[in-house]
Predict the structure.
Amino acid sequence: MNNAQTMARLLALLVVCVTTAACCPAAALRPTVTPTTFLVSSEASTPTTQPTPTPTGTPTPIPLPAPLTERVTADGTWRIFTNANFVEDLAFHDGLLWAATTGGAVAWDAERRTYVKYTMFDGLRHNHVLAVEVAPDGDLWFGTQRGVSRFDPVGGIWQTFTTDDGLASNWVEAIAVGPDGALWFSVLGGLSRYDPTRDAWQTVTTDDFGVSALAVAPNGALWLVGTQAVYRYDPVNDTWRTFTTDDGLADYRVEAIAAGPDGILWFGTLSGVSRYDPVGDTWQTFTTDDGLAGNGVEAVAVGPDGTLWFGTWSSGVSRYDPANNTWQTFTTDDGLISNWVEAIAVGSGDALLFGTDSGVSRYDPASGDWQTLVTKDGLADNLITAMAAGPDGALWFGTRDDLYFCWYSGVSRYDPSSDSWQTFTADNGLASNLIYVIAVGPDDALWFGSRVETYCHLYGGLSRYDPINDTWQTFARVGDVVLDSVASIATGPDGALWLGTDGGVRRYDLVSDTWQTFTTDDGLINSHVEAMAVGPDDALWFGTKGGVSRYDPTSDTWQTFTTDDGLASSLVNAIAVGSDGALWFGTWGGGVSRYDLATYTWQTFTTDDGLADNVVSAMAVGPDSALWFGTPNGASRYDLTSDTWQTFTADDGLADNWVGAIAVGLDGALWFGTGNGVSRFMPFEQSLVQPTSPTPNSSAPRTPAPHRTAAVITEQGPIPLRQAGDKRRRKACPRPADSGLCGGGNR
């Protein structure tokens, strides 16, 4: 949503249209070629037993168009990194398993264990895909957070549908095909129907059901899940019927629906499975007391032999044979890649395919063999909470899942020179998997700050990683003081490490191994320190929830700045030092403020000036001295020399519009940590520059790197702001925190 489109931006869009068909379907018509496939690494996907030979008569997968790994615009080259192993939905067609994931749409040849991943670069509306369905004509339909994408796998044509076309809402939760070939879309904001024969859309209702599941019964009736009930819609008579727990539903929190060929409806809830017989209008509930693996049921499917399969929140998969009334459970001990099962599909040879939070598992009931299908993406998860460039050129990312509140995934390290990934968690030495800040210390070690999430049993702390010796060190206490929430880290001019916490500022002298604490009693304006930086005057600057504090270690004096002085907002998320020595402060809701140390003057920039959003959660100074700002609506670049603004969004190359972290690589590339993956942007002018690596422990003054802080200042941590109208229910833990059902943050 750029405010001002220059001719260069229009040219960029034209280039994108021609190369990727992201704008116009006609341009998407490209020859079908042998796809670029990725073979799953044997280490990551060695099956429990050897896979069975391809059954005779198995459909031969059709060739797919090769995915695009880069996008070239008028400004530079973009690349996206996402984790496509968190599976939201599955669909099997013509020998290919299509997985809707949080990192794109993946087409698996399960027999050969190869895959192709499509992202927004190819024409997908958004990388977080919530639903997938196969239409009668063989086209694939994907429901995303920004609309619907239709893909012709033969012609390689992508087409996008949004509210502008007739969709009731752009947040599409589920898709189903009716007996007449029409497509049904349950969205946050109603129910939509698309007739492909007439290319016509119809909004059946705009009632906000909070729909998360959809199914079509053999008689053509639609079953939808609402916030407090299950709804049956008869499209022929245009009639509705509501079912609640008073009728026999086990729980109003329904996560999945499946309709059997006999007309029986099955509902997966957070309190077990409910079976509904529409003929007798009778209900029956199954729980762990009957043999169900776990009462939190996320997926339901009907097997080819009439058996029922249920994927649970954290207890694996259950198989129920209604003919014999027998139950069987499969977990990671049997070969399942994860016990958290999100989706189930039936593949070739009657194999069962299970989409989990860690990839896909394939089970052959005839032989009992298991196979694991995992993409080679190394990013631990797609919501980036922190980011930093290491002294060796590697990029470090703090990650978490963007739907499940208590799922934090640790730190991922990416080496651009070898295109390789490595993940570190609490099992390796991190104080916690919830990382809010990453910084390079004066000793070139990596420092990681964690925050407290009591509900998730995460209690913060500070971790140090020595990449040379591959050793970890954790700091949980400073004397009698608990190092709880560490939100920012900076290296002082004397080489000491400074930490911004929820209890003030801590200074750590690495040489003497001593600590010092500064609070509001000393002069700090607010004890919640979200950001910090070292100014050109060697003073320490602290961004807090109550304004800005400046500390001069030479004179041991404090100075405070608030909105009365010219600061845009007292809630300061980020601080950066410009190439001219000015201080920049990213705020919550007030835009960006610039403070000139030479003239002692303030200047504020907002959306009226060209900033993408007045909530600024990250800042960085580019190699060309331009300022970059991360916001919920994209990344903005400000050229101080020409006083011009430019905004980049997902339409340009960002993995998502919510940008919560920014870093500059040693090669001059810009890295953006978003709510749905990582983007790397190499401006054309910068790609011609060969940067030199900084000299370790140089005596020359070091310009402190900007430190990313929370995007939303709450005790619950960073919650990415979605576009207007996005109201997806955050999937909270269905059990008390001490149950361990949500993994305690260390899944």
Notes: The longest helix spans residues 7-20.
